[in-house]
User: Fold these one by one.
Assistant:
Number 1:
Amino acid sequence: MQASYVAAMEALHRICMFVAGVCLVVITLIIPWGVFTRYVLNYGSSWPEPLAVLLMIWFSFIAAALCYREGLHISVRILPSMLQGWPRVLVGGAAELAMAGINLFMLFWGVRLVHTTWFQVISDFPIVSVGISYLPVPVGGAITLMFVTERLWTGRLFLDPAGGGLAPASVE
């Protein structure tokens, strides 16, 4: 069962990477188009900037979940690095439970925010709901919560960042 869950989280991780990558590529393509139409054609397109903002919101929440799973999310590792044995596990568990609490908050209140704003429209895109711009909050919270569950279930509480780019804290 645990192996199946980890495999599902690996698949979710790849999907998140794809979505974040698509967001970045589209942003990279539409912003120069907005600049081109404004300064070369003397007619500014109204849609590239709000679409880029919407995509950046999606990118931010999806990439935050990715960074968390890969051990690249912001963390203070000095205290766990100084501990050994059960105190280290206790601190790791408490940190993961706090992360779970934050993500449950994002999920619960994010869903309420999306529900509240769903029938409003974005002025630049009259067919797009304002709720779409807030949807990354509960989606990012749910994805990160699944990654927290994976970490708690597998017991890998203190991941080293991918590639070992950070030096470990000295405890001497």
Number 2:
Amino acid sequence: MKKKILSLGVAIVLIVCTFATLSACGRKLKDREITPTIEDIWQDHTGTVYAEVGNLGDYLKDKDAGKEMHFSINGGEWCRGFSWRESEENPGNCIYAFLSTKSEEEKITEYLTEGESLHIQPGTTINVSARTPENYYYKPSAESEQKTYTLKSKLQNALSWYLPISRFSRDVDSSGFRFSDDAETQDEKKFVFYYHESNPRIVEIGVPASTWDESEKMYRHYIRELTEEEKATVAGFGLEYKVIPYNEKYLITHDHGGKSVNGSFLEQEENEGKPSVYGWTSMLNLQESHVWEFMPNDAMRVKSFVFLVRQRATKDAVQSQAMAFWYIYSRERVGEYRKITAEQAYEMMNTQEVVIVDVRTQSEYDEGHIQNAVLIPNETIGSEPPTNLPDKNAIILVYCRSGRRSEEAARKLVNLGYVIIYDFGGINDWTYGTVTD
């Protein structure tokens, strides 16, 4: 009996599957009422080839289907390309990557489509057309008109691939930027960017020269001008620069509250998947609007310029990877922030002239506060110094209820230019009495 029931169940399943298969085979797929257009084709610094495809209409609203596009090269088989991102400048357009490179050292050996189903030689002129692929509901769209593009024959990579970000200033660090991938290169062999002593807005390229300082028992690094031969070498790099105006999103906020430039993110956002000529200039033209001002730590305010460097693309070669640089325009000591205990704060109150700041709310302050404390609620500390804290050089002791708001307020005051800030936590840990007047 059980065998009969099992056999009947299997038969029913087979019938259902067969019916579903026949239904699918008989499904009439819809036509897409769009014909894509290829607006532009370009390569990024890795040699990857992109196409901006337009006239896609509602296709991009289908987030699963819209991520894929089919491309045909020289009338050959249709190969997959994948969405990079939608075009911000042209709604209804999307950028797709459809060819990658296989390279050895600085030479491209061949171009590959997705799945390596097609191999193309470097330097080849290709005719590309695009269409939306078939899926469960739709037939492939009509194909676009062909667009011609000549693939680059090589990578140029005088800029090191191994240093995505470098930092430099008046003082040349021995780990400064170099144009060579040779890790053994001596300091004197490296090229660095620096600004001219007489005009900090003029950026030049030089070579660090190390000098032994007997009194300090260490090497000091200075910048010497390039020789004529070195200038010719640098000129051959065909460098491009792009100054980056200050933008908060390009900064990293660290655990201690300080900030620094996120060069990797900046390089990716400004360079990836874009044509090599967009937004670049052949010379640095630094303006006040390009000055970045931020706190790398609790005691220092830094003004700096930030810019990207890469090589120009040529008819034969793609540009090298962009690299982010920032150099220091000025440093200013602005304050000191330290955490201390309630016991240490009490001792300072009895032995030094200090200003005590309560950063709780008015109601909390009225319930009980440390004698002589000035009320400055944390949420009221903004971009301007509090009017009841006129002396930025005063010794300031900050507290709240538990210690969270006092730390936040102390960092704000340091950022506003107060020089000596002590955070002694919360009044919950204060055992030396309070007043209510």
Number 3:
Amino acid sequence: MSFALQRALGDVVVRFQAQCQEFPWVWGGIRSCLFGGQVQTGKTYSKFGQQYVVASSESTTLQDGLNDCLGTTVNDPVGASYDEVYNGKFFYVIWNDQPYGDPHIAPCTSSGNCAGPWGPSKGMVAWNEQGEGFVMQVSTPSWPEAGSPKFPRGNDGNTLGCVKDNNVTFSQHFFALRLTKDDLVLVLQGLANASVVTDPQNQQIVNNGGPSDVQTLVRSLGRRSDSDSLVEGKLSTGVLFLSKPSSMNVPPWQMVSAQLGGASLRTATFWANPKIPTTTDGSIPGCWHESLGTPGPVAIATSGSWHNTSFDLTGAPGSNHAKIGVSADGTTSYAIFGDENQQGTLSGTCKSSQNGRGGTFYVVSNSGLASSIRGLISGSTAPADPSKNPGTEADATE
């Protein structure tokens, strides 16, 4: 099957982009703007990085990427996947809660971004006439924001490192997965359930077509969902797909743990106020939903390492914007990629922060990948201290 992920190394592709301050620009990668924009050199880009580690279904453990800048060539996994959509003839939907006004999305505020209860979800899905394609979940604000050179971004770039807002100053994650037509239907249902920020009438970010049921689902996007139930199911690759709606006011990663039978998890997200602390047992939070089981412990990784170099994994004023998790004890082999940070509350004001927003999660069961990510985020851990989780502090800006 000739589609995007054939050039992007296989059925499952994972990238973790590193921060510049820990891994300085040393190998001579050339920054370019293949999909629009200009290389940014202003003060906002005083710190940035596009070095990356990568894993795929062909090589499931993380390893150093190529000597290039992630997302700027047709050889790196992000650029290769995106190029086949941007310069191809596929249907697509792009969503991002932080478009910075380009494109203009009606429900977003004067800042150009959409806050809760809209989902803090970012990514794109693309498919052919038969409904076969792929989904790419990203954590980068303001990218992607255009799916074709026929409908370019009007006021900003559309290539990593070429966007006015520095979305490569923090670590980010990118997760791509091949989809069958049935998979695509489930993912679109989940995107609607999570209230992702998009506009089916805007050809810059939506090119609708293919099977009639797919087109109907695409037309339903861009609305706030009133659901309070999960959308979930196993995709054809064996990956578990979860979609949390904004009205399910629960701590996000406790929800994921509960859906995995109470698995003990370790997470690395944009961990900033209001912070959900590390939990060390299987207690049910005060903010919970009757449909969910019992969660296991959820630890908050605050640092990780690569090649014996330590890096920060917290949010503002830290350096991480990825949203990844892994089963913690080694008895299970879950690698998890999500839209939501571990921000909100265990009890109290249950709509706080990410508790009150929707998002999607992809759970890959693979021992090599899980072990590799476990090593990547195996540094220091936030304390288990409920007093640090009042659930009333204002959200830190992502």
Number 4:
Amino acid sequence: MVLAGVVVTMTTRTVQADVMAPKPAASVPPSIPAVPVVAPDSLTPRATKAAQRKSLLRGIASWYGSVFHGRKTASGERFDMNAMTACHPTLPFGTLVRVVDLKNGRSVIVKITDRGDLPEGRILDLSYGAAQKLAMTEEGLAPVRLDVLSHGAR
């Protein structure tokens, strides 16, 4: 059998499958180009971006309410704690998102109207009204999946 210019002779002796075979005594001549090292899929830019997108769409949601009621949000709208809105660190304002509670299966559609630095692991801060629809106001936190329905303009 010929591999990359090196002749390897196959023998009939028994070899254990979990033991590495010794390197052949002959070395590869320098005229044969080295085989390029291919990065594993998990390290390619495309896979990394996909993993980043996925991490933005699954995580823990929390909620906020009366303390911010009536204040201006980052989008310029007034926060209504009973409206179906949410705060997300990167999605454009006006983006419509279906939020699915992974524990109870309930879902609600919210509009992204605010920004904020969320604690690690949290991906969304829901208005009180949206959190009520998901039945998560007592616990305060819920594992969620986000389905982006339409992207906002800004």
